[in-house]
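Folding Task

Wanted — backbone structure
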Amino acid sequence: MRIFHGVDHLPQFRNGALTIGTFDGVHTGHQEIIRRINKAAADMLGESIILTFHPHPRMVLHQDDDNLRLINTLEEKTALLEKYGTDNLIITPFSATFSNMTAEQYVEDFLWKKIRPRKVIIGYDHHFGKNRSGNISLLTEMGKKLGFEVEEIEAQTIENISVSSTKIRKALMAGDVETANILLGHFYSISGKVVSGENIGTSLGFPTANIQVRDQHKLIPANGVYAVRVGLDEQIFKGMMNIGLRPTFNGAHQTIEVHLFDFSKDVYGMEIVIEPVAFIRQEMKFDSSNDLITQLQKDKTASGKILNSSKSAL
């Protein structure tokens, strides 16, 4: 997959089949759209193109609202779009100036002059331009004048996509990673760097890798213990993860800690990818370290049983 940052130095695409969206999650609904543009491109002996925006438009247009949490970081989304067979990805900076383009300017000066698609595949309720004044009718009309075809994605498909994104976020915030993974069509993942911790896990006999997630808008699942698969140094390991405040030790801020089974290597500073496979239990406060150790042993057994019967997407 070719990746382009901005539209000022794009190549001349060959019979491009284009779609546009944020594609957060790259879930099963998005995958259907990708299949459509890939098929359209193949039928035209051309290439598929996805146009997405960064940062997310809501972060620019609603800066007073800090509640937005994204299923994917930009890096995770890019990797998934490549996985599902997109030929070209254009990542366009979204700004207040960009949002003030009229709908006609957006189509003619941006989409047509910069990308020159042969076909645009878009949802019936897709809006664009200043105040979201442009719609598929305008796009179709301008396409006939400029020289590109517009294909509409049915209302039912769009509604399914909208509901799916909402359901995924709600499932993750409730700790229901099983449902989220089904809706995504792949395992949800958390990527980050292993950083120094307080070595509490080591003192309990369960050494952990403490994960630092760089993107503050990354959606982190609900606090609790999870069975996970971990990608590290081009290998896959089984383990369990705790997200939370570590109430037994009066923790003051949320941490993400992963204990890898049958593993003793020093991993500080390394990049790690975590796939939560199943929720094991809620985080809880224990009366003593011994009580916590007993529970961690039970968690490890439960996680091992789940992981031994599950397939990984890493």
